[in-house]
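User: Predict the structure for this protein chain, please.
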Amino acid sequence: MSNSSGQRIPVNKFGLTEVFSPTPAKPEVDVVFVHGLNGHPHNTWTSENAKVFWPSQILPGFLEEEKARVLVYGYDADVTSFTDGASRDKIHNHAEHLIAELVANRRIRKASERPIIWVAHSLGGLVVKRALIYSAEIRGMKTEHLRSIFVSTYGILFLGTPHHGSDVAQWGNRLEWICSVMLPKKVMDSQSQLIDALKTNNETLQNIDRQFIQILSRFHIYFFHEGKPTDLKGTLKFIVDETSASPTVQDVERAVIQADHSHMCKFEDESAPGFDLVAEGIQRYAGEAPAKIKRNWAAENQERTSVKHAEAAEATELYSGTRFPSTSELNLTKRTASVKNTPPQRDTPQKNTPQSDSNSTFGNSSLGREQKALPSTEGQAEFDEHFTVEDITNDKELA
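Assistant: Here is the predicted structure, written as structure tokens:
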């Protein structure tokens, strides 16, 4: 396989592979491809006859002005990945891993705020949805870097992804048909129970669609559906028909690709049916994304700053009117409950200080300590280094 410059690039079966990057220009947008059931990060996007891998051999020529970097993602996409099993949500594991890998790939290149455009085929669209749901839910200060994928995502192109509707029975049939097309016969025969679980009462897949609806309006969405049926044992069927792959949603684009389900993501050249539609969508999103994502990050950073200020104000209010302990007092206070059996120690009040407050106390009253003055700057620094709000709460619980 080679990129547009002719250089051969090996594609990893699992994880991210960068298959094109503009040189010497600095990339301004990331385009990420995600395959579906039984797919492969190279084969899913490669034409069968000419063996053209279009994400690196055709697409970059249409993204020169947009300076887009192209990546493909691979994962273990067997039937169990989309089946309710013992873990109930194995697809979530794929989503977490995708987010972690993409965050790491971008952070080490100092590109955490670079816009992202996703291209997903079939059930790969569900992995992308789950990944964005997971990233959007991140709120902790220690994991907020994982939220960067949600903030940076501008658009998603879904190629033949089944979007669950109200007809649960039809949903199950579509999943069975996808298995018939994407899985070898020996797998269909050996994993029939798993396939039955995939097509019926699959709460995981249904919940993904319900949760994604809540954040869908944040992104630019382009639905593509297959224009040709697939031969299933002598019967022609649309694996994911128009109503499922391209549901009517307000402010969402829809188009048909004149190919069957497994070939709608394989373009042999730029004249292949559907290529112009997909390439134009990626190109347009790549051009529009930087300005919008810049505004996203401005709002995100403002919100994070407001949260930190609110937390600081809450901490200040908690400590208001108290005396911060010295190092020796910290050592006493942070002991276990057995400390309560030691004789109480009383501080000597500081003299000639205008901040003296004979009614001020700190810590656990059962320790019998009466604090009568606010701390010096040095004392407060010692407190900040060794003592946390959680410690105070724990000490109170020990009383």
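The CA atoms of residues 138 and 144 lie 6 Å apart.
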